[in-house]
Design goal:
Number of domains: 2
CATH superfamily of the largest domain: ATPase, nucleotide binding domain
CATH topology of the largest domain: Nucleotidyltransferase, domain 5
Strand content: 15-25%
Structural class: alpha/beta
Radius of gyration: 17 Å
Order of helices and strands: EEEHEHEHEEEHEHHHEH
Amino acid sequence: MRLAIDTATEVASVAVGWRDRSAPPVARSIRGARQHAAQLVPLIEEVITLAGVTLERIAEIVVADGPGSFTGLRIGWAAAKGLAHERELPVVAVPSLLGAAHAAAAGERGPVAACFDALRGQVFGAIYAFPPDGVETIVAPGLFTVAELARVTPVRPRLAVGDGAQRYADEILRWIGRSPVPLEALPPVAGSLLTLASYESARRPLDNTTIAEPIYGRPAEAQAKWEARHGRPLPHSSR
């Protein structure tokens, strides 16, 4: 079985499911970034209990790779690394934008634009399509304004999802002709991470979980200030 953890946004979720997808996953979510640190471990315990299994049955951990909330991603990755170290389990990362897009697609091909709020007038954005048993990356995750994302996209998305899409809802409506889908309207994104982890094109194996870090999308504010003051990259930083 796999255990998936997503804490990239305001809505965090956990899911447990079989690798062969022989049965639907068990998934739950919580809302409120301030709840992530306190509620994530109890949420993991709840989902494992609801699935009727124990941690001994978990063979792999899947974690949202980012981009997204710096603090949220660190909380999810700390939990994933802790469980992996304790049980000597492999960990794979799946892009958080891909998870949201897959959940919003709801079995349809798409394409789907996923946009998380990156502040400063920008979004972490990507566009995906979902052919049968696969993933097509139309625009890889990056830092854009909505207008920039629209310019680099060769197709018009059928849907747009995420708090970044909501923040710039008027621009999204003009672009695709539909209002964005809020994250809280999605099924738990961790359930999509379980599915996506089966695709080689979607998963990033973490060979050394001790030093592995998520793809944040941009440096944290404190890191950016340190680098501006010292005129060089922060040692051992992840970008």
